[in-house]
Design a protein that fits this description.
Shape: globular
Structural class: mainly beta
Number of strands: 11
Radius of gyration: 13 Å
Distance between the termini: 40 Å
Oligomer: single chain
Helix content: under 10%
Strand content: over 45%
Number of helices: 0
């Protein structure tokens, strides 16, 4: 059974940084485009960042551009989300997602596999 397990969430002050990790129990994780999403209380799920299979292409939601960085280490089967200059509006549950794709360069716009999420809280 494929699993995505997020970690690294917690409480941080505004202006601070956190790094989220997503450990994937996927043997061939290199065949998957990966992404991060978030859902704040009483709001819809929001796309945060995506990365292609090759890692060469990334895409970010407008609200996090220039502050967050997605990366992947396929040898460790792990995807990361480095978050800097954090704001209270970044408070949400963050989810890792994966999508099998034949394209090494495309950012996926739909994801079939999801983790359980990790809470991130930014205090003002």
């Amino acid at each position: 059974q494929v699993q995505l397990v997020e970690s690294g969430g917690g409480l941080v002050q505004a202006g601070g940084s956190l790094r989220l990790s997503c450990a994937a129990s996927i043997v061939t994780v290199s065949n998957y485009a990966m992404g991060w999403f978030r859902r704040a209380q009483e709001k819809e799920r929001e796309f945060v960042a995506g990365i292609s299979r090759s890692g060469a292409n990334t895409h970010y939601g407008d609200s996090v551009k220039g502050r967050f960085t997605i990366s992947r280490d396929d040898a460790k089967r792990t995807v990361y989300l480095q978050m800097t200059s954090m704001k209270p509006e970044d408070t949400a549950v963050y989810y890792c997602a994966a999508h099998f794709t034949l394209s090494r360069t495309a950012i996926s716009d739909s994801y079939a596999l999801w983790g359980q999420g990790t809470q991130v809280t930014v205090s003002s």
